[in-house]
Design brief:
Length: 145
Amino acid sequence: MRLVILEDYDQASEWAAKYICNRIIQFKPSQGRYFTLGLPTGSTPLGCYKKLIEYHKNGDLSFKYVKTFNMDEYVGLPRNHPESYHSYMWNNFFKHIDIDPNNAHILDGNAPDLQAECDAFEKKIEEAGGIDLFVGGDDSYNRRT
């Protein structure tokens, strides 16, 4: 593990976004060879997501061959609720990039069987070949479905 200390949130967000961008580009994703990214929600990654959107809009980064798995969702909150992590990810990131909606995986906090939902989610991660890069937030370890 490498510890990187930066002056402020904006610098940290830009550093993280550049790191993610470089990892995706170096991987050279293509049809049948997807880069798999684990993503957090909340306020911590928002600056990073904004930078990734900027890189995409500038033509520096494509998410066409990227699969994402979000680590959390609220239980019992409808996915279209403005406070759900599904809404958060679509409004703050996914709708601004060229990711295929079928490749953006978010847990269903309203599944009738939450354990089965988590098991199916883990299976999708396995089928994707695991996570190539997992991005954590400062409080991501204590919120899970």
